[in-house]
Design a protein that fits this description.
Distance between the termini of chain B: 171 Å
Largest interface: A-B, 49 and 33 residues
Structural class of chain A: mainly alpha
Number of helices of chain A: 9
Helix content of chain A: over 70%
Structural class of chain B: mainly alpha
Radius of gyration of chain A: 21 Å
Strand content of chain A: under 5%
Oligomer: heterodimer
Largest sheet of chain B: none
Strand order of the largest sheet of chain A: 1-2
Number of strands of chain A: 2
Number of strands of chain B: 0
Radius of gyration of chain B: 61 Å
Strand content of chain B: under 5%
Helix content of chain B: over 70%
Distance between the termini of chain A: 48 Å
């Protein structure tokens, strides 16, 4: 793909250039450095901010940072309590991390499409794709982690046999065992795939539209990019929220006996 | 667009972030929230309790005031009664004293009248005697006519 991008000129070249990650390595052992870098930096920001709030946490009058952190905590906690009726030390922090991290990934989309790659090219970096959620690796990494947790909790709560029984005998009873199994497997596997592709698809399309707008004459750009950016604020929040809520729902399903 | 080792790197980052959040971020913030919730609930309960206590104290104070009023009016009544009694008593005493003084004065007057009468009688007797002596001269024997003189002086008295 990189060679194609080099070869292509004009509009296609511009688009491909913007959607090509900075990478090293070959084949499977390719690393998308920009995705890894930006998601790590954003994760670090998230952790730093909340750690600051947590260190200064007081039950008295909260400061500005603590106020915001507490607002997020309350928001996530409400979501968790609404759908999840068990005891779990993991699920709420997991949901908070997912929401904030995905939101910050998506937020990178609101930076003007050319500015960070421009800075990058000044520093000798040819390719830079700044939005981690436009990388399938990033979204799948998260959804596969969630999938692993779903399997782990299903087995932990229901027992290996209980989980196997659920896969085999539901929803149509023991006489349609192969059909049940097929249905259940598709259902389970659809979870991480839909999680990852939904986020990826929304953000990739959003980014693509920003790139297309950037190709238009300068006097048309603000007219289009401004409303799209406003609309995008909704999308990035919504996608982060959906990812979080679905994670909670899937995990609460894993905790429930049928 | 391909799946590659970036996936593994991202999963590690994600796991680290979740672990860190679970260990160092969520518990203190959540605890402080819970603690504040409890503080506020306690504060509200305390305020409610204080309010009730005020009501109770007011009720109690009203009772005390009422009792005190009753007691004071009782004391005033008693004092008035006692004063009335004292006035009555002193009136009686004064009356008695007056009567006694009057009686004593009357007795003294009686006595003085008696004394004056006695004096006068003596004087009249002496006068009559001296007059008779002058009239009769030496003819009348004082000792002989003593009973007549006494009779006369008795009639005078």
């Amino acid at each position: 793909m990189a060679t194609e991008a080099h070869a292509a000129e004009g509009v296609t070249g511009y688009i491909i250039h913007h959607l090509t990650p900075l990478h090293v390595g070959e084949g499977f052992w390719t690393l998308h450095l920009d995705t890894l870098f930006f998601s790590a930096v954003l994760g670090g920001l998230f952790v730093w901010f909340f750690k600051t709030a947590a260190e200064k946490a007081t039950s008295g009058v909260p400061g500005l940072v603590q106020n915001f952190a507490e607002m997020m905590i309350e928001f996530v906690d409400t979501q968790v309590k609404d759908s999840f009726h068990g005891e779990s030390k993991l699920i709420a922090p997991l949901a908070l991390t997912i929401f904030c991290w995905v939101f910050m990934w998506n937020f990178m989309d609101l930076f003007p499409v050319d500015i960070l790659p421009l800075i990058g090219s000044m520093m000798g970096i040819d390719y830079l794709r700044v939005v981690p959620s436009t990388d399938l690796n990033a979204t799948f990494a998260m959804s596969i982690s969630v999938f692993c947790l779903i399997i782990f909790y299903s087995i932990k709560i229901k027992g290996p046999w209980g989980f196997a029984k659920e896969l085999m005998f539901q929803p149509f009873g023991p006489w349609l065992l192969p059909f049940n199994l097929l249905l259940k497997l598709v259902e389970e596997i659809a979870k991480p795939i839909s999680l990852a592709l939904r986020l990826f698809g929304n953000l990739y399309a959003g980014e693509l539209i920003f790139i297309l707008i950037a190709l238009l004459p300068w006097y048309l750009q603000p007219v289009l990019s401004f409303p799209w950016a406003i609309f995008h604020i909704l999308i990035i929040t919504l996608q982060a929220f959906i990812f979080m809520v679905l994670t909670i729902v899937y995990l609460s399903m894993a905790h429930e006996h049928h | 667009m391909s799946i590659n080792a970036t996936l593994i790197g991202q999963m590690i980052t994600f796991a680290l972030l979740v672990w860190f959040t679970m260990k160092y971020i969520w518990p203190p913030l959540f605890d402080s929230l819970e603690e504040r919730k409890k503080k506020i609930a306690d504060g509200l309960a305390a305020a409610e309790k204080g309010h009730e206590e005020i009501l109770l104290a007011e009720k109690k104070a009203k009772g005390v005031i009422k009792e005190a009023k009753e007691q004071s009016s009782e004391i005033v009544n008693l004092a008035q009664k006692r004063a009335n009694d004292l006035i009555e008593e002193s009136k009686d005493t004064a009356k008695q004293e007056g009567e006694r003084l009057l009686l004593a004065a009357k007795a003294q007057i009686e006595q003085e009248i008696q004394q004056a009468k006695e004096g006068l009688r003596q004087e009249v007797a002496d006068l009559a005697l001296s007059a008779a002596e002058q009239i009769l001269g030496a003819e009348i024997d004082k000792a002989k006519h003593q009973d007549i003189i006494s009779k006369v002086s008795k009639q005078l008295g």
